[in-house]
Amino acid sequence: MAIILSGKELAETMRQEMKAEIERLKEKHNLVPGLAVVLIGDDPASVSYVKGKERDCAKVGILSREYKFDADYKEEALLKLINDLNRDIEIHGILVQLPLPNHINEDRVLYAIDPEKDVDGFHPVNVGRMMIGTPGFLPCTPHGIQQLLMRNGIEIEGKHVVIVGRSNIVGKPLAMILVQKKPGANATITICHTRTKNLAEITQSADILVAAAGRPHTVTADMVREGTVVIDVGVNRIEDKTRERGYRLIGDVDFEAVSKKAYAISPVPGGVGPMTRTMLLYNTIQSAKNHAGIE
Ligand code: NAP
């Protein structure tokens, strides 16, 4: 049976560390990191993500300010709000919950956020910094995956990392982070997608296999070599009448079968998800320190 890479446990440890750091920042520098979260509409998943982020902030001592608007909120008003938040000295991080309603241009909104407050790491300035390898905000999910590997003592340097999925929020940035000439990186990367030929042949050559396809059972046991480290990013709802809510969450990996072959594997839920949330807190604290000129 594989070692379980529990993001839930690591996230808890990191949050304790962050709480202590925030107490120090308050005491020594009178600095309270602040995050503004903007939610347009009432999509149930988005509402629940935003609630989770507020709870996370409260637990570690980050000031969180929530801006909630109806689904018909105008783009112009949203851009004005972002402009105000860019200049607000209590706010160090601005997060606009995606997806936005169709009448709002997502790129225009994300590009309006000051890159120095872009704690999601989606602004092209931060994407460019990530590629070059200079300091900036790293996107939370791939950064969380790197932390999950490093802090579980999984060697990344020189390893073949195969990533299934090439989205701008998971697959591509993860490749960019792990290929850097830096500690916790220096990997050799292959990115796969729906046009990839012989997917199983490639995944079998992975030392570290990351599934970020958004489809259950994308990675089955025959696609994985004995001793591989498997990270499951996928979050898929499947019907489950035994649960009160009528569904449960599963990843992209056939956990039952793959965990018998893998050296280590991250579960869903309780794997990458809590790490993503934690790295948002990390970026917000980082931003507060940057704004105050604290090393
Ligand atoms: P996405 O934008 O839909 O991208 C999925 C990628 O997977 C695409 O590049 C797609 O290829 C590729 N793909 C899909 N099916 C494939 C297959 N059968 N074989 C090979 N490649 C395949 O999704 P995303 O935003 O990256 O998210 C991926 C999953 O991670 C989702 O389940 C999402 O909910 C989850 N997620 C979790 C977290 C977390 O914190 N736990 C954070 C973000 C996302 P093409 O480009 O060719 O279409």
From TrEMBL:
Keyword terms of this UniProt record: Amino-acid biosynthesis, Histidine biosynthesis, Hydrolase, Methionine biosynthesis, Multifunctional enzyme, NADP, One-carbon metabolism, Oxidoreductase, Purine biosynthesis
Domain Tetrahydrofolate dehydrogenase/cyclohydrolase NAD(P)-binding: 139-291
Known catalytic reactions: (6R)-5,10-methylene-5,6,7,8-tetrahydrofolate + NADP(+) = (6R)-5,10-methenyltetrahydrofolate + NADPH; (6R)-5,10-methenyltetrahydrofolate + H2O = (6R)-10-formyltetrahydrofolate + H(+)
SUPFAM superfamilies attached to this UniProt entry: Aminoacid dehydrogenase-like, N-terminal domain (SSF53223), NAD(P)-binding Rossmann-fold domains (SSF51735)
GO biological process terms held by the UniProt record: L-histidine biosynthetic process; methionine biosynthetic process; purine nucleotide biosynthetic process; tetrahydrofolate interconversion
UniProt keyword Iron-sulfur, yes or no: no
Family: Belongs to the tetrahydrofolate dehydrogenase/cyclohydrolase family.
HAMAP family linked: THF_DHG_CYH
Self-association state and partner proteins as the record states: Homodimer.
The protein's name in its UniProt record: Bifunctional protein FolD
Organism encoding this protein: candidate division WOR_3 bacterium SM23_42
Lineage of source species: Bacteria, Bacteria division WOR-3
Gene name per UniProt: folD
